[in-house]
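Table S5 (text form). Sequence records supplied for joint modeling of the two-component complex.
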Amino acid sequence: MRLNDDLIESDIAAYLEKHEHKSLLRFITCGSVDDGKSTLIGRLLYDAKMIFEDQLASLESDSKKVGTQGENIDFALLVDGLTAEREQGITIDVAYRFFATEKRKFIVADTPGHEQYTRNMATGASTADVAILMVDARKGILTQTRRHSFITSLLGIRKVVLAINKMDLINYSQQAYDDIVDDFYAFADELATDLEIQPIPMSALEGVNITSKSNETDWYDGPSLMDYLETVPVGDRRLNTPFRMPVQWVNRPNLDFRGFSGQIAAGTIQPGDRVKSMPSGKQSTVQRIVTATGDLEQAIAGQSVTITLDDEIDCSRGDVLVSAEDPSEVSDQFQARLLWMSETPLLPGRRYLLKMGAKTVTATVNAPKYGIDVNTLNDVPAKTLELNQIGVTTLSLDQAIPYDPYDVNREMGGFILIDRMTNDTVGLGLVDFALRRASNIHWQAMDVDRSALAEQKGQKPAVLWFTGLSGSGKSTIANALQKLLFAQGKHTFTLDGDNVRHGLNRDLGFTDADRVENIRRVANVARLMSDAGLITLVSFISPFRSERQMARNLMADGEFIEVYVDTPLSVAEDRDVKGLYKKARAGEIKNFTGIDSPYEPPRAPELRIDTVNNSPEEAAEVILGFMREKGLLNGG
Amino acid sequence: MKNLTHLDRLEAESLHIIREVAAECENPVMLYSVGKDSAVMLHLAMKAFYPSRPPFPLMHVDTTWKFREMIEFRDRKAKELGFDLLVHVNEDGVRDGVGPFSHGSAVHTDVMKTLALKQALDKYKFDAAFGGARRDEEKSRAKERIFSFRSAEHRWDPKRQRPEPWNVYNTRINQGESVRVFPLSNWTELDIWQYIRRENIEIVPLYFAAPRPVVNWNGVDIMVDDDRMPEELRSTAVTKSVRFRTLGCYPLTGAVESTAATLEDIIQEMLLTTTSERQGRVIDADQSGSMEKKKQEGYF
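The corresponding structure-token record, covering 936 residues in total, follows.
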């Protein structure tokens, strides 16, 4: 490293002291493909003298081999790390770069320009203070530029550099520059009211207006990029908001010590401060702020500490310690903005894992209210969200969690969604506000309760859930079983897929999203019927494991009996009672289970029925035997 | 109210990462390489859980060719701090007599390091392993996540990395998969040295200059650490004042001539020097992109 600081040679201790107390700025560079992001960062590293001689040597040899700048150094090669990227000449993933000047240390997130890597850009933006939006002076504001500005503003970045690059290719024309700036301001007005924009004309390739002002743009009176980055204020607004600390880990080395470890998300804390543990709302007083190098008199946002309290209140991982005077709210229903990050679209009604702070809960994501067109920022209708799409939706959680709106605190209002099967991170969400619905609609307590209703009928309620391919024999077996139960004087009802689709679910089709909603409704109807004391037979293809699990979770323990009508596809297709397979094979029916839509067989059904070797009547007897064995046929 | 410095922020982020693994993973381990980055990582682990002990063991993948001083330091440090120390050696490699002098650096590293690490992770069924890698070390590292997922075959797929917004980490894995966790991702070499100085962290004396016997092997000065070095090479040894910028297997670790005997001296030398840290390692030299290939194959 060839830093030109005399202190290094003359007084290293003084140099280190100075360097240790620099502030830190995190920024992100984003823009369209070929706008020159990597070249800019390479140039910044080069001009800040952060490139070692051996790196420079390999850069020079690489530039000649695969560079795009002829005999000149191709700075982009310095940051385009992965082999695939070098070959294709694009930046695939977000890369983090580090450099320092006399005034500041910097962490740079270099993010991809391609549309399919928007999620990586959001990741880079989530921790950045400043965004550098790269614009090719010849092309002006593009769709990508709009989307990227929208995403950085969505994720809470309020300081933006509009880097109008490749000015050398338009002869440093002020007119062209002014037009682009006007264009951007017109668009940015709708992004956020408190956005601070700094436009800078530059050429990353030629080093114009990067580390110092250049003569080529004598008409420009703003700062160079480096001047701006070194001086832009990085006030941590989290310090002035009420205290919040998500509890990561309960620290219990022995019976005499019980501390709560976490990274402070907002505000400050001192021994003697009153705090609440959310969601329980139990109050206590901070006793000590413990660290390995001694107790602290005060801790502030950003620090990782361990806090002990005066009282033995209930508090565990995922709870949040908050200021007692200004506590966070708690809710289990939210409206949120969602950026979808998976190639598998959002399935409204499906349950995902939601992780916010140290808390992971199960969340049902409802159908989007609307999507957001990133070019116009207009609302557009959306039934689901595809990869890189942004929408506004509501979520229902299986338990209430403490939160703050994202615009107040990133850590307390930002969450990820995780697919429960693949474990992939599929969505990024920002809490806007809680829905009051959940707390206002109370359960109506009934004097005549479900057990009274069942007792009156002299039976125990149960839900027999028949799942299997179309034509597997679900309805035929359910029908045979209902006859047997009826003969024994049991009160029963059958919910049949075809019949329900004529009424309750007539608005639903056969897409994955509609199938999920179909099952959600039927499962809730079955639940109401079992509350009424009935034995309910549900005969639905119900192809997805997660929705059958959702139905199971709705019912009381032991009341859900999954009956897998296991008929091989070839047999069901041979039978083809309704002639549907023929149509599906001919392409006349789309999304047909087993043909062009998947069926996920149960892993551990209560009963598996072999319809090849058993008649429907024999199958019904098997199920009846199972119910008898489980005591479900005894009086209520 | 005092503002947090760069080092304060890096420390707080690392403690958060280390705690998150302890809270969410079933069977974590901290890979300890005995180097300066490992020393910092160990120090951070002690801080993260204080006054409790870190709830995971240390593991050293021993190629049997490490400097003797490293092994002494390792055993003493683990004992001092009260860690369980697991040492894994690829016994197949030992039986076949694999070593850098007889087999060359590529085969030796593959068998005694990459393969040995996979063996060890499989043997103890660790689902999470901390490593001390930093993003500023090498280009492909710059793009790696803090939580980096490996298939059941220990492979890294750079195109299937999970997004990591804010400080929210998705630690969930499927059966057989594992995650490598890099709490020092955002630290630079200078940050490491400054932190060692600020926190007074003990490091292996090999980092400091001293008169040591070295020989020139394949254009690099290496230290004579034991008599497994071929006699004809050993006989060429001369004593020079040298130190090491990274530590590994002694025949594969280039010494630099230096008189830097204190931390300040080392930092000064580093700031004034003109070659990057990894140049002393033999692995990177063969071709560009070699580290990325090794990572995809399971090298840490």
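Note: The first helix of chain A runs from residue 6 to 10.
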